Amino acid sequence: MRVWTDYSLQWETGSADLMNQSDCELMVVFVDAKGEHHATGMVHPKLEEALRNLNDRGTFRGQAGEVAVVPTLGLQREQYILFVGWEKANPAVTNMRATAGSIGGKFHEMNIQSAIIIVPKLSANAQLASAFTEGLILSFYRRFSYASYERAFTILAKLTFIVPTEEAISNWNTGVEHGLSISNGVCYARELTNVPSNRLTPVRLAHEAERLSEQYGFKCTIYDEKLAKQHQMGGLLAVGQGSANYPRMIVLSYQGAPSSDEILGIVGKGVTFDTGGISLKKAAGMEEMISDMGGAAAVFGTMKAVGELQPQLNIVMVVPAAENMPSGSAYKPGDVITTYSGQTVEVLNTDAEGRIVLADGLTTALKHGATKLIDVATLTGAVMHALGDVTTGAFTNEDAFLQKLIHASEQAGEYVWQLPLYPEYDRLIKSDVADVKNHGGTWAGAIAGALFIRHFAEQKPWIHLDIGGTAWMWESRGFEGKGGTGVMVRTLMTFIENESQSTA
Ligand code: BES
Ligand code: MN
Ligand code: ZN
């Protein structure tokens, strides 16, 4: 299987004297909303005139993310200047990510191989360097094509950053390194999401975990169908029993704080394809269901970044991986199954399979010592009715825990919005014949799903992130291409780094 190979950006950072040695094709210059640029003394007066001209005509107003490319016609060493709108407005990191995304889009379009970036004076810090790198790398990612012909595809080979002072150099480099680790994690998650289900089965996903464990020294435990049966993982097995591709319970452990008893459990829904099972989905658009392991992709991408950045925190990642198929051996509406926790579930709709595999995923995380839980899942279409493809829905049994995660999401530039779990909703999962039922009816579908999962968190602090609307894009948007988005890698990793700092 082809997987994302790290984007190994070549770059150097220096102060003004490095400029004269550069032989880049293009120079990037930041411009504020007044039309003033941030590269004093580095732009030829004639080209400054061109900038004023564009501004007067209203073609380029220096609005955030706006770009204008001007050929230098021999007036400067570089063939082009790229003017980009930049206001250090709040939040500056989000703005910088988006700005770098538009720059990257232009690089791609113009097939730029080398560029020199003049970093604005007040922006030469590690946070903004990381955000810049994230936006740039994320804008480069394209879904792999399996076409038999070679695609002409070249991407940026070399970047030179010019920062205002000598002291800023090492901070900027640290930030770029950090941004590369984060964005490679996101691109890895996108790639896992984009691989079709005939190429990414539960068994293949387990191989990926083994590969990560070898690369980063994680402890890896895989429950194959026999081990899962021995452990009575009835939820995972029920969902997987209709498919010729057997299920796997995948566990990766990372010990970044050996002296602490706290272990963060991150659990990702790994349904490699969701046909709906016997409660079959309609045909139109069903191909999107290759992304029903988007939650798994998010936690895999996070673990990759964890391996790179080595935060001081204990983490156990769990992915219940299964394929939801209709067949002679498939589970059926009306079935009552016993999950790994011992709790029973009345199956009313085989298409509400995510919550069933997650039930066993949460139990697995708890048995591996998790003291707090975050699950990420393409759980419902209903969350898309509420929040569209813009915002991830969040649920919790402990508000203070979720507040920290929402704070991290704001730093990371991903939208997360809390939905309620008022006690009046409890009847949505009440069953006459089992502890819970897996389908609550027409309304409040995202909430019913969350309540079901909460049942298996066993009173431990728990957050559920429903990425049913945000894991997959039908059209590109900003630095997000069509297909898998890798959503929640940035948020989870930022949360983990914040926690790491607060315990250090
Ligand atoms: N994987 C789907 C949810 C989904 C649908 C995510 C479309 C992204 C796009 C999930 O397994 C599912 O089928 N959910 C059902 C639940 C219902 C039967 C209670 C849904 O949301 O319709
Ligand atoms: Mn489903
Ligand atoms: Zn599903």
From TrEMBL:
The active site is at 281, 355. It is found in: Cytoplasm. It comes from the Bacteria. This is Probable cytosol aminopeptidase. GO terms for cellular component: cytoplasm. The gene is pepA. Pfam families: Peptidase_M17, Peptidase_M17_N. Presumably involved in the processing and regular turnover of intracellular proteins. Catalyzes the removal of unsubstituted N-terminal amino acids from various peptides. Mn(2+) 1 binds at residues 274, 351, 353. GO terms for biological process: proteolysis. Residues 349-356 form the Cytosol aminopeptidase domain.
